[in-house]
């Protein structure tokens, strides 16, 4: 089967950083599905895993953690899907990724593809939808409600609203909760993107968050979902969060931060990594199957939309290197998808 893979970890401008290769077609066991991959998308995690390091793989390593495809075979213990089903998923970082014609994935982290979307539109969603859903509802514990709340309205600050996760988090928060959504964006086009997805307020994360919030009549926020440079925003988040508020980040720390800044306010800080459930085969691993199906229902009912912003074809090393470079530039809005194999 065709695949894009690596053995050495190199800068993306090196033509050997990602290579077109031919690999053996895998065979499903246990609860695995064998999926014929039709479309993929690229996330910051792809570029972080591929980033230069002193390591050489003995076998080709396939990256990629977003896919849409068709089930072509199932393991003997698989019960959730049948051959021919159209599916979408992010997969597991502990296994071969989606940058290949065929991929094995545990059915417990797979959802039925939204029926109203094309392959490219659907491929933009899985990793970011899982991350946004788990961050909002499993980590920040924001109550889901479509009814007007009798309690004082809550506020959610999403730092990095125009990226892949922010684009879906804005929509989920506006559709499924009663919070006022404040998103950050540093450029006019990214700010407009956030507004188009439902953000109530947009501020600039390159400027003082507290000053901008105060100018909007918001003294502090109940929840913060940090999707952009945890180190850089740590002090600002500690200032902007309400006493007994909740902060969740998806961006690993590069240095040390002062956790004591959260103590007097009794603020909760938590991490979100969408690979946790699959990496540790958690008891509730199947929750990703359920939430992906829920997201598909929201899409098909017109309540939220895809975050796709660009499509390239075909899926090959040259195009993937181009997308990795664009992701590394830090200016991507929404998601970039590749589709079809030559």
Give me some keywords for this one.
342 residues; Quinone Oxidoreductase, Chain A, domain 1; Rossmann fold; 2 domains; 6-stranded parallel beta sheet
Explain what this protein looks like in three dimensions.
- With 342 residues, the chain is α/β, with parallel strands linked by helices.
- The protein folds into two domains: 2-125 and 284-339, Medium-chain alcohol dehydrogenases, catalytic domain (Quinone Oxidoreductase, Chain A, domain 1), CATH 3.90.180.10; 130-271, Rossmann fold, CATH 3.40.50.
- 28% of the residues lie in helices and 27% in strands.
- It is built from ten helices and 16 strands.
- Strands 3, 5, 6, 7, 8, 15 and 16 form a seven-stranded mixed beta sheet that branches. A six-stranded parallel beta sheet has the order 11-10-9-12-13-14, with helices on both faces. The chain has a three-stranded antiparallel beta sheet with strand order 2-1-4, covered by helices on one side.
- Helix 7 (230-240) links the parallel strand 12 and strand 13.
- Helix 3 (126-139) crosses helix 4.
- The protein is globular, with a radius of gyration of 20 Å.
- GO terms for molecular function: oxidoreductase activity; zinc ion binding.
- Residues 13-338 form the Enoyl reductase (ER) domain.
- InterPro entries: ADH-like_N (IPR013154), ADH_Zn_typ-1 (IPR014182), ER (IPR020843), GroES-like_sf (IPR011032), NAD(P)-bd_dom_sf (IPR036291), YIM1/Zinc_Alcohol_DH_Fams (IPR050700).
- This is Zinc-type alcohol dehydrogenase-like protein.
């Amino acid at each position: 089967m065709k695949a894009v893979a690596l053995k050495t970890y190199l800068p993306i401008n090196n033509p050997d950083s990602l290579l077109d290769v031919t690999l053996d077609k895998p065979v499903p066991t246990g609860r695995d599905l064998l999926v014929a991959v039709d479309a993929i998308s690229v996330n910051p995690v792809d570029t972080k895993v591929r980033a230069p390091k002193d390591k050489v793989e003995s076998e080709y390593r396939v990256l990629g953690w977003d896919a849409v495809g068709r089930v072509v075979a199932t393991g003997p213990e698989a019960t959730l899907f049948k051959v021919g089903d159209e599916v979408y998923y992010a997969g597991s970082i502990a296994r071969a990724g989606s940058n290949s014609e065929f991929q094995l994935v545990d059915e417990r982290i797979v959802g039925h593809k939204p029926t109203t979307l094309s392959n490219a539109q659907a491929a933009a969603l899985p990793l970011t939808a899982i991350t946004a859903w788990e961050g909002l509802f499993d980590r920040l514990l924001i109550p889901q409600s479509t009814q007007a709340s009798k309690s004082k309205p809550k506020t959610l600050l999403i730092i990095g609203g125009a990226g892949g996760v922010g684009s879906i988090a804005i929509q989920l928060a506006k559709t499924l909760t009663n919070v006022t959504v404040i998103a950050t964006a540093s450029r006019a086009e990214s700010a407009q993107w956030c507004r188009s997805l439902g953000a109530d307020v947009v501020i600039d994360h390159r400027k003082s968050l507290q000053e901008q919030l105060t100018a909007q009549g918001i003294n502090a926020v109940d929840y913060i979902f940090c999707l952009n440079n945890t180190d850089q925003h740590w002090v600002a988040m500690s200032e902007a969060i309400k006493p007994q508020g909740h902060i969740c980040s998806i961006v690993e720390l590069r240095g040390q931060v002062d956790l004591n800044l959260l103590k007097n306010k009794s603020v909760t800080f938590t991490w979100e990594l969408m690979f946790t459930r699959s990496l540790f085969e958690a008891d509730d691993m199947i929750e990703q199957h359920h939430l992906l199906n829920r997201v598909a229902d929201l899409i098909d009912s017109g309540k939220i939309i895809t975050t796709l912003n660009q499509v390239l074809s075909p899926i090959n090393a040259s195009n993937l290197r181009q997308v990795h470079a664009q992701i590394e530039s830090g200016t991507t809005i929404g998601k970039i998808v590749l589709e079809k194999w030559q």
